[in-house]
Amino acid sequence: MRNGLTQHSCEAKRASVHTLGCRLNQSESSLIAEQLEAAGYEVVPFGQNADLGIINTCTVTGEADSKSRQLVRSFIRKNPHAYTAVIGCYSQMGYRTLAEIEGVDLIVGNQEKLNVLDYVAAGKNDTPLVVRDRIDRDDFTIEITGDAPLTRRANLKIQDGCDFMCSFCIIPFARGRARSRSMDNLIQEARSLAERGAKEIVLTGVNVGTYAYEEATIVDVVEWLNEIEGVERIRISSIEPTTIPENLFELMNRDDHALVPYLHVPLQSGSNKVLHLMKRRYSREAYLDFIWHAHRSVPGLCLGTDILVGTPGEGESEFEETLRLLEESPLAYAHVFKYSERPGTAASRYPDKVDTATQNRRSARIRRASDVKRRGFYEARLGQSVEVLFEHEENGYWTGYTGNYIRVAVRSSEQLENEVRSVTLERLAGDYALGSLEQPALVAS
Ligand code: SF4
Question: Does 429 contact ligand 1 (Cβ within 6 A)?
Answer without folding.
Answer: no
